[in-house]
Amino acid sequence: MRIIKSLSLLVLIIVLCTVLIPAASAHRVHLREQVMDVQIKAWYGGGDPMPNADVKIYSIRDEQEKLYLEGKTDENGLYYFAPELGTTSYRVVVELTGHKGELEFDLTAGSQPENVELPLYLSVLVGFGFLAGIGGIAAYLSARKMKAQ
Fold first, then answer.
1. Looking at the domain assignment, is residue 139 inside a domain?
2. pTM given for the model
3. Number of Cα atoms under 13 Å in the Cβ half of residue 126
4. Which phi and psi angles does 39 have, rounded to 5°?
5. Is 131 left (phi over 0), alpha (psi -120 to 50) or beta?
6. Is 79 in contact with 71 (CB distance < 8 Å)?
7. Which residue would you say has higher pLDDT here, 97 or 45?
8. What pLDDT digit, counting tens, does each position of 79-103 carry?
9. For position 82, which CATH number holds?
């Protein structure tokens, strides 16, 4: 009887230990924050990248703008730069053979696209739809005029 009480007590202690003791980890976890490079992507209206375009990065601090970096995009129209310590606002100017684009963004808020462009095939389709609509209105007015005579 004494052995059963002892075993019962031992089982109760083991169950309570497994339930109440937090899980242990076999590996220690280390965390560190790291600000990655900022990626600038430049492309034409049709979606083609702007390779070897001139890039100028201006840092904006206390509403004062100064040239931070200059460089060129790669063959995919991409340019990477490390942010300047203490600066979160930037203005980027990308230019190639008369084509120029500007973007101002804040690293803490992200960039909001000002005007989102349709892909080229959709722009062509919208143009044909617009022309067909004008042709339909002209045909309607012409039919009304002929019916009135």
1. no
2. 0.54
3. 7
4. -105, 130
5. alpha
6. yes
7. 97
8. 999 888 888 889 999 998 888 888 8
9. 2.60.40.1120
